[in-house]
Design brief:
α14 packs parallel to α16. It contains 22 helices and 20 strands. The protein is globular and about 80 Å long. The chain has a four-stranded mixed β-sheet, with helices on both faces. Strands 16-15-19-20 form a four-stranded mixed β-sheet, sandwiched between helices. With 633 residues, it is an alpha+beta fold.
């Protein structure tokens, strides 16, 4: 197995500088047929990713073995029980290298800079953290060869390698100093182009938007259903619904919930891990399909997701939702011996599963994934209030915000022994702020918008690149270890930030949010010509299309007002803004419009500059909405 030349890795760093979010490596191996035997990885003296570990590597002049893993990763478990139990590997790592292990769910910032295609990612680094070699799952002999050849390369070329690394970092610094903010106009025609590109990538037989392997593309589904709603083009609806129907092969027919992805183009050969964020995004997609079609099949799927999440992934003390569930069932008595693989286990009925035991659950509560789940549950509550999901989601949302938010630092990614860890990651801030906005729509309580604005202010202060445009994925720190110094901007999270900023603008009418959205979107559109299609289309449309506004005026203690508000929440109008204004406590002015304080609860539907006549009965919503659409088309 040839060692990747260090100079190629330096070029990899240069590519990162140039394209911001591209990845050089793509190959992944999944040794599914290798049995797991026992847990003895503690024999390797794994060190945490921290300043002291890198200091030790430099003082002892040792290369670093970085193992990027995940709790739910089957191939990682296999490598633990094969390669990392090999005596020669243990001796080599403990005596001549500094082995570091990182759970990528815990450190998405490290994952963004070091992951090579999939899990596990096995990297050999200079003592200062630059990459010398990368692979995925490696047999003992392959890892041993990589370690030995990397060390030989380092010992024989140390000065040159360190000099080359210093030169590349200077190039990074110089490139940052020379960057300039893009100023191009945002063309509304791009929305249609994104729809055409999705159609070009669509699999007309199996659904989905690529060949094998098949991953969920929730943003594409949301975008297509919205395009169908706006344009009445059946093509968009057909692509979305076929995908949702076919990807049900990845759902657990017994307990509900969706597996992580499928190896085959027809959605078969699943990887049986169940991730919280995958449940969250599918929950929203199947809700949207139910709203568009009225087909109870989609409601059954979303209710299955809710049953699974509340049964398996919900913290019993109401602190939030757990991160994931393993595919495999292991002995919990201490040996961690494999009892049954996911491939066999998830074919069983409920009683058999209970007899064997459940796959392990990662009980970490991550801010970003919880934000996604809170938001989806609140959306479901708006349409299906009988499920009473707001009473479930809102207390947890409030708890996570109170526990993890610190003014000026944003939200922490997780807690360890009650202490917040990793403040200011872009994905946490954006996902959670979107959940806060959804809480505002659901309750009509302005305090949630206030919190979303606090959080977004921190985002812009901590993460915006005011010179070059866009948002960094973490607060910049030139003293950070390894490639964490690299100024990474995730295109996906920047696009989500655009949508957040647009939402805040449409709710508050503060033009600063629209300007920030424009700056961020301009950066994304010039940063790459390979954008995530569904998310790009959604973000552009959110920016160029002013949403439908539903305003309900009346006392929040009045049942008639409550029914009006609830019916407004149910209405399928993609991207709609819903406000409940109580004359006793709220201003009745929105922008330049002041709504009258009438004695009877009243609703209005507005689109562009056209508003419906005031109406008072919840049953009038569909016809009034259609009247407004007819006037604006």
């Amino acid at each position: 197995m040839p060692i990747r030349c260090f100079f190629h890795i330096l070029f990899y760093i240069f590519l990162l500088v140039s394209c911001g979010s591209c990845q050089l490596y793509r190959s992944v191996s999944h040794p599914e047929d290798v049995p797991i035997t026992s847990d003895v990885t503690s024999r390797i003296q794994w060190a945490p990713w921290q300043e002291e570990t890198f200091q030790a590597a430099q003082e002892q002049d040792r290369l670093i073995l970085l193992d990027l893993t995940a709790v739910w990763c089957h191939a990682c478990h296999v490598m633990d029980e094969t390669t990392y139990t090999d005596p020669s590997i243990i001796a080599l790592l403990n005596t001549r290298f500094i082995p570091i292990r990182v759970d990528t769910d815990q450190r998405p910032d490290i994952d963004a800079r070091y992951r090579h295609g999939g899990w596990p990612t096995t990297s050999i680094l200079l003592p200062t953290g630059e990459i010398v070699f990368q692979g995925n799952y490696l047999e003992p002999e392959d890892l041993q060869q990589a370690l030995q050849e990397s060390e030989k390369l380092y010992r024989e070329n140390k000065e040159d390698l360190l000099s080359q690394a210093a030169t590349i970092w200077k190039t990074v610094t110089d490139a940052r100093k020379a960057r300039s903010r893009p100023q191009a106009a945002i063309d509304p025609e791009l929305v249609g182009q994104m729809g055409e590109m999705i159609e070009q990538h669509f699999d007309p037989v199996n659904g989905g938007f690529q060949d094998a392997p098949k991953f969920f593309e929730p943003d594409a589904i949301t975008f297509l259903l919205a395009r169908y709603h706006h344009l009445h083009d059946e093509t968009f609806k057909r692509m979305a619904l076929l995908t949702l129907q076919q990807q049900r092969k990845l759902s657990d027919p017994v307990w509900g919930g969706f597996y992580r992805y499928a190896e085959q183009a027809d959605w078969t050969n699943p990887h049986f891990e169940k991730m919280l964020h995958i449940q969250a995004v599918n929950l929203q997609n199947y809700l949207e399909a139910y709203q568009v079609t009225g087909d109870l099949t989609y409601r059954e799927v979303l209710e299955g997701i809710i049953r699974y999440v509340t049964r398996v992934l919900m913290d019993s003390q109401g602190r939030g939702f757990f991160a994931s569930q393993d595919a495999d069932v292991k002995d919990t008595s201490g040996s961690r011996r494999l009892l049954m693989s996911g491939e066999d286990y998830f074919q069983l009925e409920d009683d058999a599963r209970r007899h064997i035991g459940m796959p392990g659950v990662d009980r970490t509560i991550y801010t970003d994934w919880n934000g996604a789940m809170f938001r989806s549950l609140l959306k479901v509550h708006q349409v299906l209030p009988s499920l009473n999901l707001a009473s479930l989601a809102l207390p947890m949302l409030n708890h996570v915000f109170q526990e993890r938010y610190e003014a000026g630092k944003g939200m922490a990614h997780r807690t360890v022994n009650g202490e917040p860890q990793a403040f200011g990651l872009l994905r946490d801030q954006v996902w959670f702020a979107q959940a806060l906005i959804e809480a505002f729509f659901t309750t009509g309580e302005a305090r949630y918008i206030d919190k979303a604005e606090q959080l977004t202010k921190d985002v812009m202060n901590l993460l915006e690149d005011r010179q070059g445009g866009g948002l960094y994925d973490r607060p910049q720190d030139i003293s950070a270890e390894g490639l964490l110094k690299f100024p990474h901007k995730s295109l996906r999270e920047n696009l989500r930030a655009v949508m957040l900023l647009c939402d805040l603008y449409y709710v508050t009418e503060h033009v600063s949010y629209r300007k920030a959205a424009e700056r961020t979107l301009q950066y994304v559109l010039q940063a790459s010509d390979q954008l995530p299609l569904g998310l790009s289309g959604m973000a552009i449309e959110r920016f160029v299309r002013y949403p439908v506004n539903i305003v309900v005026v009346g006392s929040k203690d009045d049942d008639t007002t409550s029914r009006l508000f609830q019916e407004g929440l149910k209405l399928y109008a993609p991207g709609k803004i819903v406000r409940w204004l109580d004359p006793a406590v709220d201003s009745l002015q929105i922008g330049e419009v002041t709504f009258p304080n009438t004695t009877e609860p009243t609703a209005y539907i507005c689109a562009n500059t056209i508003c419906s006549q005031p109406f008072h009965r919840a049953t009038e919503f569909p016809s009034r909405y259609q009247d407004v659409l007819n006037l604006t088309q």
